[in-house]
Amino acid sequence: MSQIILNEKYERNGWPSVQRPDIKPPEGWSLHLITAVNRIYNHSLSPDGQQIAFIWNHERLSDIYLMPAAGGWPARLTTNRRNVPYWSDETPRWSPDSQWLAFCMDNQVHIAPATGSAAEKIVEFTAQSASPMWMPDSTHLVISIERNDSTQLFLTDRDGSFLRVLTDSPGDDLDAQPSPDGRRIAFVHRSPDDLQRLDIRMVDIKTSKETVIVGSPAHKDWSPRWSPDGKCLAFLSQRSGWDEIWMVRPNGSGLRQVTRLGMEIKDLSWSPDGSQIACVVNHSAAFELAVAEVQTGKVDFICADPGVYSKPHWSPAGEFITVEFESPIQPPDILRISLPGHQVTQLTFSNLPALAQNEMVIPERVTYFSYDGLEIPALLYRPSTPNGAAVVEPHGGPADQSTFGWEILAQYFVAKGYTWLAPNYRGSTGYGVAFEHANYNNWGMGDTQDCLHGAKFLRGLPGIASDRIAIYGASYGGYMVACCLSRDPDFAFTCGICKFGDANLFSSWALANRSTRLYTEMQIGHPARNSQTYIDASPIYQTKNIEAPVLILHGLLDDIVPPESSEEWVEELKREGKTFEYKTYADEPHGFFKRETNLDVYARVERFLDWHLIPW
Predict the structure, then answer these.
(1) pLDDT averaged over the chain?
(2) Can you give the pLDDT at residue 111?
(3) CA separation for the pair 122, 582 (Å, rounded)
(4) What is the rounded CA–CA span in Å between residue 374 and residue 540?
(5) Are 521 and 512 in contact (CB under 8 A)?
(6) DSSP state at residue 466
(7) Pairing, β 469-474 against β 390-392
(8) Residue 87 burial (CB < 10 Å; 0-12/13-18/19+)?
(9) Contacts of residue 328, Cβ cutoff 8 Å, sequence gap at least 6
(10) pLDDT tens for residues 434-490?
């Protein structure tokens, strides 16, 4: 295959979507308004409980800010930290003495004093370093470096005066967790021979001896977290068929299951006295804040609002927890929750007064049956005044989930009268291991049918016109768009919008970054050994079947779904004489982050949907 030259461009085949002069934005709404909210995420409470570090995504930068844990005006720590996708960004890490912060910037670990002095890169020996974790002495750190096609752990210090290898076995060593006494490092190991396996291992700092604490073939154990006294490790495991909390001693003995909720759990945080673990419980797409008793496994829910709680942190005396929260009607912010009493104090305020005045919708939990009888959960946004049009929005991943989180574009279209359905198709997280693995070696097949049956579900709702349903998705959701438009003899969708999605899995795998290649191989194997699966999963081979117009949007810096995949699909659309619009963005990675980009993207999406779904 010859090299594909990538340039920022706009192309079309057929009439372009133009602004409808007869359709105005909903009263109180505008695209400028919904793109003006800046996301707050990845907060971290200092060990002394006095300060909170967090990342604030201000349009072109993802800088780190500090604020008092009791609330107050944020102080900006960094000034030139380039935009990073919030879902893959790393949390800034406090030193145990609360005097320093370690974080990644420009693919390198940096250190900055909490007093606000300039950040300094600490390692000059490598082109890339990540995932800093402090040792108990607040002087040394464990960092990750990719070497020989493996992610390995290294020990260094604040000045970067030395670099010592801690792990060097084949595979990836992730999520380093130093023991309270600083003698051992617990970490997650991913073997290159079994990508569906995650082990928890231990390395002795003094001897470099490495041992397996828990692990078994085709099984995942991860997120090891030391108890305050260092006598045991809590971790997450899928051994029960759900992501639940387990416990083990550092020598591998005493393995036991702590929680038995039959729901997925994440974000473990030990209480200072070691008797409880704060966590987040996934309850049918709402992420609820809870506390699990270590001895009994009893789970008490602290906050169960219809939204998404994440990243709980205990104060040093255990009198409060800080946590992040977002919901369909509230953008992400940091909260402080007192214990006992559960009094909630909002510490950051990212919503805009003009936006907060607008009526927004809490989605309903619904289910429908797919082609094979599998029940598919989904979130349904119903407008107060339906306009007869509807959109199916499959999420990315596929190991991800549509949740009760902040989805402002959906709210905008619901305000316009659109009905919005976000299906959690097979392969989604949140519904147990069997459901999550249901599309392994089956990409583009059953999950495609789940999305097509989402359109069938919408057609059964009152007020929805069967010929006015679109599909819109990003990343794997964009891949679902390509699959649904190519593999549906009933033509369920009137049009489709594909944001940075795949069409040819061969080239996408070959050109993606290493992490994405491994993620793909974990689910559908290596293309050299599983080529037919890749062929069957690639909708580019069924382009001739497409009848609906499609809008394709892609960033040219994308190394997760490389833009060549869209280029190839567009060439095939041209060859088959299909109607499409195609726009690329020169300085955007996987996901669009500049405000001016999102303004252009949202305007194109709005024109496209209004043009094709709203009758004259």
Answers:
(1) 95
(2) 96
(3) 42
(4) 27
(5) no
(6) T
(7) parallel
(8) exposed
(9) 306, 307, 360, 361, 362, 363, 381, 404, 405, 406, 407, 411
(10) 999 999 999 999 999 999 999 999 999 999 999 999 999 999 999 999 999 999 999
Kindly give the pairing relationship between strand 286-293 and strand 299-303.
Answer: antiparallel
Transcribe 554-616 into DSSP letters.
Answer: EETT-SSS-THHHHHHHHHHHHTT--EEEEEETT--SS--SHHHHHHHHHHHHHHHHHHHS--
Please answer whether residues 46 and 38 qualify as being in contact, where contact means their C-beta atoms are separated by less than 8 angstroms: no
- Tell me how many degrees the CA angle 182-187-191 measures, rounded to the nearest 5: 150
> Rounded CA gap, 321 and 487, in Å?
49
What whole-number distance in Å separates Cα of residue 401 and Cα of residue 405?
10
For residue 178, is the peptide bond before it cis, meaning its omega torsion is within 30 degrees of 0?
Answer: no
Task: Extract the tokens encoding 161.
Answer: 């005066």
Euclidean distance between CA atoms 290 and 277, whole angstroms: 8
The rounded distance, in Å, linking the Cα atoms of 449 and 466 is 17
Residues forming beta bridges with residue 584, ordered by sequence position: 554
Strand partners, 225: 234
What residue type is 363 in one-letter code? P
CA angle 268, 519, 324 (to 5 degrees): 30
- The residues spanned by each domain of the chain are 127-220+249-254, 264-357, 358-613
Options 3.40.30.10, 3.30.160.20, 3.40.50.300, 2.120.10.30; which CATH number does 127-220+249-254 get? 2.120.10.30
Tokens of 417: 């009268």
Class of domain 358-613: alpha beta
In the block, tokens 């000059």 appear at: 124
* CA-angle at 424, arms to 590 and 516, nearest 5°: 30
β-bridge pairing 233-237 and 244-248 = antiparallel
Question: In this structure, what token pair is assigned to residue 192?
Answer: 């290159």
Task: Give the pLDDT score at 373.
Answer: 97
* Residue 371 Cα distances to 349, 380, 448, 606, angstroms: 44, 20, 10, 31
pLDDT surpasses 70 at 2: no
